[in-house]
Every structure is written in C-alpha cells, then in structure tokens.
C-alpha cells in the first residue's frame, strides 16, 4: 500500500492538470478563421514583444548589429522582405514562419514611422 500511494498521487496530479479545456472547434468544419487586416493589427505590441530587444523602443538601439531604423531609408517592400526572410548578413531573425503576412506588413509600416523624414 505504501508503494501504491505515490503512484496514485502522481496519477491524481496528471489527471487534475490534463482536463478542463474545451477542445470543441468554434468554427464550422472546413472554414478558416478570418485574417486580421494590416490596419487592425497592433504593430506596437508586436514590436514590444519581438523587436525591442535589439532595435530598442525608438528603433535606434542597435544591439547585436540591429539597423538604426531612425536613419534607415529603405522602402516598404525591402522591409517586408527583411522581416519575412531575415537580414542578408544573418543578424536579424526571419519572422516569415512566426508572423502572418498581414502582421509583417503592419510591422514594416510601423518601422517606417521611426524615420520622420520618410513620413513627409
């Protein structure tokens, strides 16, 4: 009985932690959830989660060789490519597998706001 008690205790913990989630799909089978449009995406929130460590809050920190986005003059297409595929020198991580196309576009547009000369 003394040997059985620890096993029962572990089983109880596993059962208690494993349940409670509703796995019923909210969408009808065969449908895909709607994709957020670029203008609806909170790029600032994504920036704080994914980019701030290297680029800084205002895009000018340059940690680990990150580009200074206050001085960058690259166009939107270039920025989308870099965010999607990473930088040519391998310094920046590719986010094409992590972020949606809409999120990447929103992020590229957001990075352009750091360079005030590009807004004119």
TrEMBL record:
GO terms for molecular function: electron transfer activity; heme binding; iron ion binding. InterPro entries: Cyt_c-like_dom, Cyt_c-like_dom_sf, Cyt_C_IC, Cytochrome_c_Oxidase_Subunit. Residues 38-115 form the Cytochrome c domain. This is Mono/diheme cytochrome c family protein. SUPFAM superfamilies: Cytochrome c (SSF46626). Pfam families: Cytochrome_CBB3. Residues 1-16 form the signal peptide. Keywords: Electron transport, Heme, Iron, Metal-binding, Signal, Transport. The keyword Metal-binding applies.
